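Why Peptide deformylase? Reviewers of the renewal asked for a concrete example.
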Amino acid sequence: MILPIVAYGDPVLKKQGTDITKDYPNFDTLLSNMFETMYNACGVGLAAPQIGLPIRVFLVDTAPFSEDDDLSQEEQETLRGFKRVFINARILKEEGDAWAFSEGCLSIPDIREDVFRKPKITVEYLDENFNKHTEVFEGLIARVIQHEYDHIEGILFTDKLSSLKKRLIKGKLTNISKGNISVDYKMRFPNQKKKR
Ligand SMILES: [Zn+2]
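Here is what the prediction returned.
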């Protein structure tokens, strides 16, 4: 089932997510709904707060990035095969010189801005079977994980922009929260006027 994606301005996007346990109700259904919702919106990641749940769960599937011709064949194949569920994730370490990448977000349609992040991360998480892993990720995969991880910490990529950039996009963000935007997937807008 495709779920509506929560738009910028909704308080749930500002909440720090809570850990979950194996007996979280209907968890398999939740995961399959989240994957369906992400693919329907052509996203490479989706975090639970974006469908209104302040819990520490997010998905990543970097396959759409693999089409980039600037990447080596090896990089393309790595991105194509990377599909993962992260539960109760903690980033233990971030290393290297921060690099810029133009990020977007399904909760903030039509805005893309350069965000600086470190290229190499160590993450501790549970997979969909609640098995624990500690893994190192780099490059674009690390980038997507960092973006989604921020969601479960209540942080959006627009929070990381300079105050000048923030001022420049303020009007656009207000419009998004009011639903004054055309978007081709289902969304829920916090400040939309009720239709009479
Ligand atoms: Zn996002």
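The chain has a mean pLDDT of 96. This is the kind of structural detail the renewal will allow us to pursue systematically.
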